[in-house]
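Field guide to reading this record: the first block holds the primary sequence, the second block holds the structure written as discrete tokens, and the final block holds curator observations. Each block starts with its own label. This record concerns Neurochondrin, catalogued under organism Leptobrachium leishanense.

BLOCK 1 — SEQUENCE
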Amino acid sequence: MTTPGDHNAGNATLDRCLEVLREAKSDSEQFAALLLVTKCARASDLDDGIRRKIFDAVGFTFPNRLLFSTSTPEGCPAHLFRSLGVTLLACFCTDPSLAAHPQVINKIPIFNETVNTPCTSKDVAAMVEDAYECLVGILASPSGNKHLVSGDTVSSLCQAYLSHSHSWEQALQILTSLLASLPAKCWKRSSSELQRLLKKLTFEFADLEDERKFHLLEILPIFLPPSSLLLETQWGSDCLKHLCSGLFKILSSKLSPAQRNPALKLAACLAHTCGSSWILAESRNDGAMYLALVVNLACIEMRMALEDPEPLDSRQVFVTSCFSLVEMGIEECTKEHPILNEDQKLQLVQVMQEACGAVMYYLQQRGWEKVEDPFTLASVRILGAWLAEETSCLKKDVISLLPFLVHYMRTWFNRGVTCRNQPIEVSEVALLSSKWGSIWPGDAIRFLLPALCHLTAEDSARRVLVNEGVPALLCDYYLHQWETFTAEETELTETRNAAELSLQSCCGVFLNLVITEPSLIGQEPCFGSLLTHMMKSLPSLFPRSGHLVLVANHAILGLMMSRLLAKTPVMQEDVYKDFFSTVLQFLRCSHVASSNSESGKPTIALSEHYAHAWEEMSELWFLGVQAFSSCVSLLPWLPTLVLESGWLQDILCLLGQVSPASFGADLISVFQGLLVELTRNNKVCRQLILQQGGMEKANLYGMAVLEQCLSGP
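BLOCK 2 — STRUCTURE
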């Protein structure tokens, strides 16, 4: 134990050494004094003031000379000068201002090389330890992590761990800090080395049966790559096998929550990156059992935490991990070919329903007072994922929670609007001063849109949503998402795709309202504004490739609202003809005559441009033809537009050209509906249909209503 007397004596010795160093007249005298100083500098009880005195006396000149010297005195070890130089810098690096000095930063390559030096003696081991101290000091300094990553320290530390060089445990500690703070940059700069390291770590995790297994369990989420590399590469597949094996050894054992909960966190990280695919990595036969085990445990933890009257604060991160695992379970249960059999699926759905019931209970009890809490957004997100698939269970609880969900959506959307409308400097300050940091949760609506598509189709839920002002809120949200989707500065494909999906989901909600609450469309001014926007935007959207499903949503929703607002000022706008001309193009270009048939007679087929998206948009297309047909009697100028577009001629040509057997009943039905409306409401159309053999074609295709209409006066 060091006594005050020992401390004072050490300081007096150091002061004498520094005085000798300052007064030294030759390199030999300086070296001798410096040797004494470095021995003092290694003392563990030196405070910041003493270390600063050493720097003031030594500066960077001596360490630089030592580090870059190419020779040593006869009889001395080759590493002597480097060892002394690194020791001095390790002493300086305890001061953050010195650790951030360019004279230290430019020594990073030397420290990297030193930590991988083979330890042939205690002196070399001490030099390696000092190099680690330098790296730790730089890491603790402002922007130190960036300097280390750009200086290839990650690669050197990976090598030190893989070869189990001296102090390899410290290499893993520094790597953990670097990857936690700059994961993307680390992987971009040192991808191959991190791949080898992750393979080693996951192998050890699967193989070990001691406390180190649980240490690895804590840090492995930090070492996972920030992309889908694990699913796309052989080395990633190997890592997943090891992770899967190690995780299920832990989760299948009787362990304390302190040991089991980190395993669920790691499983949640894998679920976030790989979905449920990681569970199949080790054994497809056991995949269903593993999935059920993980999701069941997550549901139990969710219920225990969310139904506990005690505050959640210390458990929020863990419960959010459980949310990710339940979301994985929901996705797996809704797949066309899940790995679960029917009994397993039913059992899992029941457990997840109870867990989501706990989420609703928590939001009802605490949500109103915790709108600012990021955990509330996580709770809304998992509930949105559940309600997107299931709204009939717990129906009363869902409906009673709707006022809060609408309040939450409106609150954060309005705050996002306020923030976006501020000058950029003010906006950034607002973001940084909130609990959210740089993450602004203005798009909480996106997580609930699929659920709203279901809820607006149900009478009781729809009434609550309408009373809470959801139509106006979603109209504002839709217009904002359209700005994001069409903005020239939206360069990120992910951002544009998310906006497009949100637009499509909004259209689904609006379509439900148009069909189930037609009187509402004329009462709510927002629908008139929405229709005007769609009329203006569809002509520019249709020519853009790759957005046919969004075009279908725009066109059909616009048609459905046009039918209800035909007599209002909205339809007097100059843009309506451009809108309907574009709708006509969209509807008429879907089907063509194909000559690829064994009989030799052409058959009806989808055009190449429509085939890839038909599964998503076919219902919309059929509904669109029906809606267009119902507009013919309401808008007297529409038949003339049909004639000018050539669509009527195309339909009659198809009916006469292809094999009747190739027409589906649905297609015959919608074509008949359109032809009947054109016949009844426009003499020129009626005449053209008769001239093109309309009676014969109506008889051939079993269009009895059209045949009767054509035969009348």
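BLOCK 3 — OBSERVATIONS
DSSP finds 40 helices and two strands in the chain.
Confidence is low (pLDDT under 50) at residues 1-7, 422-440.
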